[in-house]
Amino acid sequence: MKKVGDHNSISKKLFLSLALMLSISISSLAQEAAPAASATTAVVSQGGDPVKGKELFNTNCAACHKLDAKATGPALRGVGAKHDKAWIYKWVHNSNDLIKSGDADAVKLFNDNNKVPMTAFPALAEADIDNIIAYTMEEKAAAPAPVAGTVAGTNENAGGISNNVILGALALVMLILIVMLFLVNNVLRKVAAANGIVVAPKEPTIPIWKAFVRNQFLVLVTSIFLLLASGFFVYGYLMQIGVDQDYSPVQPIHYSHRIHAGSNGINCNYCHSAARVGKTAGIPSLNVCMNCHKNISEVSDTTSTAEYSKDFYDKEIQKLYKAVGWDKDNQKYTGVTQPVKWVRIHNLQSFVYFNHSQHVNVAGVECQTCHGPVQTYEIQKQFAPLTMKWCIDCHRKTEVKMEGNDYYTKIHEQLSKKYGVDKLTAAQMGGLECGKCHY
Amino acid sequence: MSSNKKYWKSVEELDGNSSIVEALKNNEFVEEIPTDEFLGNGGLLSSSSTSRRDFLKYVGFSTAAATLAACEGPVHMSIPYVVQPEQIIPGIADYYATTVFDGFDFANLLVKTREGRPIKIDNNTIEGAKFAANARVHASILSLYDSMRLKEPKIAGKNATWIDVDSKIKSSLADAKAKGGQVVLLTSTLASPSTEKLIAEFTSNNPNAKHVIYDAVSSSETLDAFETVYGERALVDYDFSKAAVIVSVGADFLGDWQGGNYDSGYAKGRIPQGPKGSQKISRHFQFEANMTLSGAAADKRVAMSTANQKQALVLIYNTVVGAAVPVILDAKLKAEVTKAALQLKAAGSAGVLVSGIQDKNAQLLVLAINQALASSSFSSIGTRQIRKGSNEKVAQLVKDMKAGSVHTLIMSGVNPAYSLPNSTDFVEGLKKVSLSASFSLREDETASLTTIAAAAPHYLESWGDVSITKGNYGLTQPTIRPLFNTKQFQDLLLSVNGFVGSYYDYLKSNFASNVSGSTWNQVLHDGVFVGEASSVSAGSADYTSAANALSQSKAVQNLELVLYTKTGLGDGQQANNPWLQEFPDPITRVSWDNYVTVSHADAKLLKLTNEIVANGGLDGSYATITTADGVKLENVPVIVQPGQAVGTVGLALGYGKKVALKEEMQVGVNGYSLYKGFNNVQSVSLTKVDGDHQFACVQGQKTLMGRGDIIKETTLEIFNTKDAEHWNEKPMVSLDHKEVEATAVDLWTSFDRSIGQHFNLSIDLNACTGCGSCVIACHAENNVPVVGKDEIRRSRDMHWLRIDRYYSSEETFAGDNERKENIAGLSSSLSTFNEMEHASDNPQVSFQPVMCQHCNHAPCETVCPVAATSHGRQGQNQMAYNRCVGTRYCANNCPYKVRRFNWFLYNNNSEFDFNMNDDLGRMVLNPDVAVRSRGVMEKCSMCIQKTQATILTAKNEGREVVDGEFQTACSSACTTGAMVFGDINDKESQVAKLVEDERMYHLLEHVGTKPNVIYHVKVRNT
């Protein structure tokens, strides 16, 4: 039976190809990122302990020196090879004396570094200095390959086979089934034709759309449904005009709250210091950035993500330097500044008065309540809808924090008696009056 | 059943033969509507390139495009500082204490700055800072942001650098030295110890140089008289708070007389004080020609010409000193003056006499009378230094210039080409000056003619020191970096003198010699330092011959023109300030104009009229003023002024400027052209000219019509002897055929306001002098727009706070009430009320500041269809602009007419080219208050932004609010004590006590609105 054999061969091929495809996808998942290259061991050992040295370096030297880049002082990697040990001891214990003594190396070093004298460390024992030298003589570790989706990506891959692959496979199976159905139908027809069975022709029926038009009840119900549905969508569209929730514009400098507030745990009020006292939280002026970035000219290797490389972040820091006029190489301000034009994300209308200090300082509301989990945002966005309903809802349910605030003592006692409650909400304090926010 | 009545559709139907009736039976309109004419023009229609379909396409497309464009939100930028100054926190105001003296006005100030830009002037309340800001000083903040300012120095009309200007002046000075030509520094009065020292150094370096002081509005005769007796040119700083009897002969001391700023001292004596039943206030007699603020406040005002005032002064001199100089005075006037003189004499040291007569003899008599009284209000210690100008020297300068003997002329703070009566002589002389320079804020009449137009900084951008009175030392400090490429006059002198450093360094180096007992930082912080004033001993003068000379002075032949300065514009320095132009004159209530004020009797003779026309605007005749010398001032609008002395007319100086002014501000006529010999009294004749002038007057209704419940007035006698119900009657209504207090009946349910703050604003009509500081302060605080003359004329003024002025139609308001009570029958009422619409020839005047009354039971709130106006627990009637749809129901239902509607967009609109139409002018806007858009209602918010800010400060500091912390813009600007604001739930607060006062009443109490603004009955000491 030629036909039968034919049929079988197709099914086999299909089955085989499906099996093949699945196996490929699984095997690809089995691959893993190569383990991070382990740090190479110290090549030069001059009788010091690099591990102790690292600790000492971080406590004593890191404020002004980096291993591989110039900061306030010069880069220290390989310093043991540049000077002899006795000279280094003297320099560290009191560089000023060395310079005064007219040591040529010392004077040159002093002049090369903007004539900023180095703090004397007479308390550092020679053994300690040996340890530090040992640490600085370690070879630079190769940068670890970025771990895919360390923070930004969720654990999509953790379960093994990803959802997309499963869905793809299922879709393929369905497709194959449809094709098979079609083939089976075809075969049956051929069989029927071969056996001389005549398939009765279909009776001509009314096209479905005509039937629909004739059924007036159905037309009525449908049009009512369509009207309501379109009304729903039009209303929904109109209500979102001017509501910019999730607005996350591209900023002139890619500033990551994830790194600053998340990884580094910097308090929001450090930069947005006006939030405690003023109407606006304030975008920090660039000199605030420079408090830290004077020393941090590049991100650490672990900061980069799959999406944003270390190189990318480092370039963003350079943008800051350009704006503030910081000459990194000479560790000086040039005086040429280019104020940054940030794109404002939270735009309240001019007829709304909002004061941060009322909410942050008086009420003690967490920044995240209105601004969302900022510490996880790589790109800042508008978390809250900033609609009046949103404000009012919060005022209705939020209890006024009056402990330790003498302003509230009397007024709370009287009002809570009036309303018969223990704790007053902002609404009961008058927080729903139009004039409290609109003037 | 059908009716037999016939209904007429129009009067035409009465005429049976009318063709119109027939035509209307068939057609809708009597005349053919010319549709065929239009449509029939086939040629034109078909030749048009735009078909009907095209038209619809365009409409559809542009609508769709506009809709789509509107969907995209704008992108806002935020640009933080690169290095943020430590003391600036965005959103928090900084205050700087400073002292201003611009040659005319002076005050101790606190300047509020936001994000580095000054936005509001407040009064410095530190001890020793006794000079408060008047309306003009409050408005001066806007002059800082004047777009017509001179932005860089110019030499011969071309932009130049300061280096060029310096070298040009230096070489000219050297040239003058070589040639022996005269060098003149022409300045306004400086009152600055450092600048005066600097000029002294300059004149000692340049022996051919001299310093001429020129006051646009002169007080030269008073200075001369004081110099004769006390040996120095100065003005007495009167203390009216110590006076029980005040007699003013032509001195508008509540206005600009000798610099003004006497309101707060005066008002202290005007609030009844003492044990109940024998409370006291001062008694104030005023003899004057024009109706002034002082005349309005007076207990007894007598209108008389300046000629009569001179006689009156002699008469008072006779009475007080016991002399017998012959006096020629009408018997009736004589009786009035004698009455005042006797009371003055009886008061002894508690009496004080002031006079504004510009005559040295008259001013000598003032000194004589006050000396004879040993008046405690009068002191020769701590004299005012704010006027030093000498008429003779200025006249001599003009002569010298015309003679060509002036080589170099350097001016600062003066505009003689505008303000000199003989300005043509000056301009002619200027051409003969080899080099002239003018340090000026604007390229004005003078600066546009001088060789060098030197751009000077505004006082809010400058350093300086001011000694307003002797012993009082104030520092002027910049509150913003100079907006333009400007340089102070002093810096030029320093560079010429060869001093290395700026004027700031010079000030600091001189500080020790000016102030002992304080430090630079302390004085800079306080703004003012009060030291010891050296006393001057009185010399003697021949008072008798002065009195004789005065009594023999001749009256003018024709009409007597009395020139004065208006509360709005003063000497005219700030003519390009829209706030001041739109500020209605307290007396006439006319804005955007000056005019000649004529008495009712004279107006009748000369056929000059004022009338309210159909659109509600005020129209007035034009007149031409001709002086005895034939100087003409043509087409001067006329205001018929109740209280104007018969035979006198008044005209304000400071108007009629044309150069460096926006077109809208070029209003009025230049009164300086008639200010011959710096004499404010001139002999003139008036002739009517054709045409009517359209005034922008905000108050058409002049009189109270006997409605004593709007302004309650009583006399001190009744106040002291009768119960409050007599002079502060509670309105009654009938309820169930029984008389009950009007406030007992209510449509609304009351809310409990006893918890938290409940704000009240108290206005004491006794202390209010109508000075208008509050009006301008409100403007600045609340971003109130300027609408322009045309809109004001249409009664579309936007002032949140107005000061109503009422005249009595009888001699007194009490007389009005009596007359109204005596009306019997309809015909009598019609005729009487008709007559009562006209003010008396010498009426009593009352001022009443009216703003939103913040009714607890507010009629406006009930009628708002969208609940845009609602009430807060704190008593404020709140207006949510974003909710308002502009039905104006609220304004129509407001019994106080205090709601203001934005008929147009007043910002960013070239139709209203005032400060809100340019970037510079918008810098003055208060960022805490929304700028309203077209189609919304607005009104006084009781400065809710300020009360909220005060509460927030207390919350942040974790404490309760202290009494006196709550302020509105008007209450903090009011230094007379007329306006007091505070929380009445704080029973110890000043305002809570004022609410309990017997004099307290509510405006239109019978309406039952329960306002949160309270007034106090005016008590006159007649």
From TrEMBL, chain A:
The chain crosses the membrane at residues 165-184, 217-238. Residues 1-30 form the signal peptide. Pfam families: Cytochrom_C, Cytochrom_CIII. Residues 48-140 form the Cytochrome c domain. PROSITE patterns: CYTC (PS51007). GO terms for molecular function: electron transfer activity; heme binding; metal ion binding. Keywords: Electron transport, Heme, Iron, Membrane, Metal-binding, Signal, Transmembrane, Transmembrane helix, Transport. InterPro entries: Cyt_c-like_dom, Cyt_c-like_dom_sf, Cyt_c_III_dom, Multihaem_cyt_sf. It comes from the Bacteria. PANTHER family: CYTOCHROME C7-LIKE DOMAIN-CONTAINING PROTEIN, LIPOPROTEIN CYTOCHROME C. This is C-type cytochrome. It comes from Flavobacterium cellulosilyticum.
From TrEMBL, chain B:
It comes from the Bacteria. Pfam families: Fer4_7. InterPro entries: 4Fe4S_Fe-S-bd, TAT_var_transloc_signal_dom. Residues 759-789, 843-874, 875-904 form the 4Fe-4S ferredoxin-type domain. Gene3D superfamilies: 3.30.70.20, 3.40.50.740, Formate dehydrogenase/DMSO reductase. CDD domains: PsrB. NCBIfam families: MoCo_extend_TAT (TIGR04519). This is 4Fe-4S dicluster domain-containing protein.
